[in-house]
Amino acid sequence: MFDEIIQQQLLQPLMNLLKQGVTPQKIALSLALGVTIGVFPALGWTTILCTIIALALRLNLPAIQLVNYLVYPLQLALLLPFYRLGERFFHSEHLPISPQQILAMAKTNLQATVAVLWSTTWHAVVIWAIFAPAATAIIYLILLSLVRRVVQSQTVAGTI
User: Fold this and answer.
1) How far apart are CA 66 and CA 46, in angstroms?
2) How many CB atoms lie within 10 A of CB 103?
3) Which residues of the chain register pLDDT less than 50?
4) How distant, in Å, are the alpha carbons of 39, 99, 113 from that of 32?
5) Which residues contact 81 (CB under 8 A, 6 or more apart)?
6) Which of 7, 40, 81, 98 is most buried, most CB within 10 Å of its CB?
């Protein structure tokens, strides 16, 4: 059962991309950037950023957006760590807030939420920008290795 899910949901779309001429490098980069941009510590921006990056680098837009959406829980989980690192890095005042409070505030009054979180978010974005290039490179290398293995196993099996 689990093997069927992996085959249908992961390997088959990957094989379809490869059959369309998308290189393993482009697939791995699309997925790696989807993860890295997907955890960008400013809610509501990742879809736009992923689209811009995908178009600028001629990457697979559906792949980068799919990963972006899949890592949304990770974005929420990393929001406070990015906020806290930003507070330390910039020696700014601690903002006692939880992800649930941020979401509730945003649903109630987005403009007020942006005003309250502007400085904290800006600091978190700087921290993200420091870590993002290395994280993207590491994720890319891991995914490139995995995609190449899949290609190799599928080539041997005769499905590509």
Assistant:
1) 11
2) 14
3) none
4) 11, 24, 30
5) none
6) 40
